[in-house]
Amino acid sequence: MSASTVSVHPHHPNFLDDELAALTLQLEELRIILETGKGKHAIDNPPDTDVAFTHYQVELAEYHAVLHDQRFAQSMGTAVHTDGSLIEALTSRDVLVHDDRSIALNMSTTDPDIEAPPAALDLELQNNYENWISSISGNIAAKSVVDFSDDESEAGPSMTYTERQANTLKKLSTEFECVACTNRVPRAFSSTSRPATKALYPPKCCRQPIPLALVARHMVEKELAAFQLAQIEYSTRKKIYCSNHDCGLFIVPSRIDPGTQRATCAQCGTATCAICNNAHHQGKDCPDDPLLQETKNLAQSMGWQTCSACDRVVELRTGCNHMTCHCGAEFCYCRHCYINVCEGCRRNRI
Q: Last residue of a domain, which of 235, 270, 285?
């Protein structure tokens, strides 16, 4: 269980006792809740609430063990820090007694086989002991900072148990795990209720799509609307997105006028051409319209002319070459030029 850095200050001696008491009460409440619900459902099909309570009970038990071990370690460290001077004095006296005895034995015998104990060894043991005492004392003097985090090197401010729980929830894994099949689903989908890519749609559990009816009651209105919009978006073959670069929202087919191919964004109201995905052409034909291209190819093969003002195709069946388009522009049909500059037309047909 990952938790925040906890700083145990000397002026809060009952800090761990309060934490352990609070955890003990929570564990007792969970035990009562789980025992009360026994026999009310099938053993192999427990309700989601019981599964959640069981997982939470395991987490609290693990944290309870961590705090218990911490209190035991702190007790040992405090004892060493408090009795360190006395232990050091007793050990120094024992070392002196051992040295005096060795010297006495060496002076009281003339046996050449008896040699004094090596002084270097005694000195090395003494130095190691003194270093150990110094290290323990230094750690205790540093206010017994206990760090549960792998990526933090400094102790943070003291926090209550509720604050640490909230901070821990923010640092949870970025994946959820299904309690039935241990299938892992990225949090990005679950938190936004809209898959970032089509590869994540539809959401699945045990490789089977999850019906929206099963999860809709767990969503707020905004999340449900985003999910339903994603359903329409990823099931639409030709997708139209808002041409406004600051918006880019998907435009549902119901907001597209089939006659003018005008797609209106529900968020910013921008009109987008449903043919080329650019801004709507406001009364003009889209140059990428395949039907328009076919019409122009037909007009060219049939010798039809096009109005130079509005690009409307015009066919002359009877009458003179003086053409007046629906847009009000006038031109000569024989050479597709304006009537007042045409020099090749016969005057009797004008």
A: 235
